[in-house]
């Protein structure tokens, strides 16, 4: 039996001593068997936490995927193997903090190529698409955007939204009659459309055209902030978070579209933990409120869309507040 097959069998059976000797003799911990599973996936699937740890210590890739997009963490999670799941989650978070192998390369909606701001976009009743048939924003997000608006408007006052899109969150924000409502939009066609729809004439609305990176010095302080940009990467949002202490008033609420890694449940949890840790280092606590979205997402929703940017049953809505205020 080849070393890879032997590792898979030992991992399935939880044979830690066999695993260690196979690793010591140069066994291939990256091996995929005929079913597309690695030794780590087998160990996770059967809840053998000690084997999971030994394989990870031997550099087994925690983020390897089966042909159907399932990771070792997904196997542990689906089978309810908490100890194995925790080992995988902790390893994944540490790896992402150092290397950023999934979150840094992937943006929330569609893994956009090229410069989105120079791209032509098309508008329909239920979506905005880029020229590559990737969805920028879709109407199924409306209940999520209403929940985000409720969170960031919970203190009233002055509200900032970065990324207008279809205007779903801004329409919801307006229902709370904030003292002021600032919108930053960088795409010329989206900006033109929102102006033609009368957004520039609303009494309490201030529209700033441009990339947030270019206009941030003009911004004031706000009681609520929402962040949802397209064509940017996780690094861009991390950069924005560095400005939160200046932009968000004490006791203010910050939220963002939590769509990164929306095609894989385990990767999404890793990302939720990662962003919570990074916000914590800036002095913010993050509460993740689960919202079921399965009923919003029949196959017909994605007709004509090149890539499903969200495939999970639950959306975790982040509500972030300075830790001194939230205690």
What does this structure look like?
- One of its GO terms (cellular component) is nucleus.
- There is one protein chain.
- The model is unreliable at 107-114 (pLDDT under 50).
- The longest helix has 17 residues, at 82-98.
- Helix 2 packs parallel to helix 4 (49-57) and helix 4 packs parallel to helix 6.
- The chain folds into 2 domains: 3-98, Serine Threonine Protein Phosphatase 5, Tetratricopeptide repeat, CATH 1.25.40; 116-326, Rossmann fold.
- The chain has helices at residues 3-13, 16-24, 39-45, 49-57, 72-78, 82-98, 142-152, 168-174, 188-196, 212-215, 234-241, 244-247, 265-280, 323-326; strands spanning 121-123, 127-130, 135-138, 158-162, 180-185, 205-209, 222-227, 248-256, 284-292, 314-322.
- The protein starts with a helix and ends with a helix.
- With 327 residues, it is an alpha/beta fold.
């Amino acid at each position: 039996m080849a070393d890879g097959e032997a590792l898979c069998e030992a991992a399935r059976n939880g044979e830690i001593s066999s695993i260690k000797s196979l690793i010591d003799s140069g066994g291939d911990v990256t091996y995929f068997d005929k079913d597309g599973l690695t030794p780590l996936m087998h160990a996770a699937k059967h809840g053998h936490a000690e084997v999971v740890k030994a394989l990870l210590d031997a550099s087994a890739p925690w983020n390897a995927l089966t042909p159907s997009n399932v990771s070792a963490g997904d196997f542990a999670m689906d089978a309810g193997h908490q100890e194995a799941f925790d080992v995988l989650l902790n390893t994944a978070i540490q790896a992402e903090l150092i290397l950023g192998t999934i979150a840094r390369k992937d943006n929330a909606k569609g893994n956009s190529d090229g410069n989105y701001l120079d791209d032509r976009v098309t508008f329909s009743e239920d979506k905005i698409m880029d020229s590559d048939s990737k969805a920028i924003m879709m109407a199924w997000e409306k209940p999520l955007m209403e929940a985000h608006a409720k969170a960031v408007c919970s203190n009233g006052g002055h509200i900032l939204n970065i990324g207008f899109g279809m205007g779903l969150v801004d329409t919801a924000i307006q229902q709370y009659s904030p003292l002021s409502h600032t919108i930053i939009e960088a795409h010329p066609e989206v900006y033109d459309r929102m102006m033609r729809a009368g957004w520039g004439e609303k009494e309490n609305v201030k529209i700033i055209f441009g990339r947030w990176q270019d206009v941030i010095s003009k911004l004031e302080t706000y009681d609520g902030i929402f962040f949802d940009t397209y064509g940017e990467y996780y690094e861009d949002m991390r950069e924005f978070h560095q400005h939160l202490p200046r932009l968000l008033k004490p006791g203010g609420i910050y939220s963002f579209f939590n769509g990164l890694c929306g095609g894989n449940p385990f990767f999404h949890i890793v990302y939720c933990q990662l962003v919570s840790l990074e916000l914590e280092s800036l002095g913010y606590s993050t509460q993740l409120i689960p919202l079921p979205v399965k009923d919003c997402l029949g196959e017909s929703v994605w007709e004509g869309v090149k890539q499903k940017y969200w495939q999970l049953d639950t959306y975790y809505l982040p509500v972030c507040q300075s830790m001194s205020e939230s205690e």
